[in-house]
Write the structure tokens for this entry.
Amino acid sequence: ISIRTCDAKSTTILVGPNNSGKTSVAEALLQFSEGTGKGFSIYDFSVSCWEDFAIAQTVMVQEPESQKDAPCLPAMSMDLHFEYDDDGSDLAVASDLLMDLDADSKRVRLRIEYAVKDIEKLTNDFREEKRPDERLFDFLATRLNAYYGVSLFKVSTDGDDKERIEERKILDRLIRVDFVFAQRHIDDQEHSRATRLSHLLHA
């Protein structure tokens, strides 16, 4: 999915019918922008890639000397594209994301990736700790964040190259995401016993 917000002054509104994915987009943006990955669950992976967990399991249970390739596990990522100006405040951040010295390019790209941290450790733990007939998918369901984590990468504008970024605070310098979650009995009436919406928005 691709969302362009560059024309928005301060507010982006997602509008659509029920079950069109508005909440999914908002939750994905929240989870990725937090930069920790702690809110993800195994069920956030698309059903289409569940088979990849089964394929990886087949490789992981093989004897080490029989393995030709390392297991390939699914990952999730979000790419953020930014356009910058030549003023000092923009360049201070953009310089950390530049992948080339093209003077005509004023765009940078950041990838937030949620992927397995140490495939060797996961493979060994799965072999030693799994219950009889337990699937890798179910094994990870209760301990996903022990083996998966968030990494940041600066990415070339064409997407062909990427470099890991160790400085995690760059995400806070680029984007801030706040949510007021919908709830019943919320309005902006002074006399109401409900929570005042304006207090939440301007807190």
Notes: The longest strand covers residues 107-116. The CA atoms of residues 23 and 110 lie 23 Å apart.
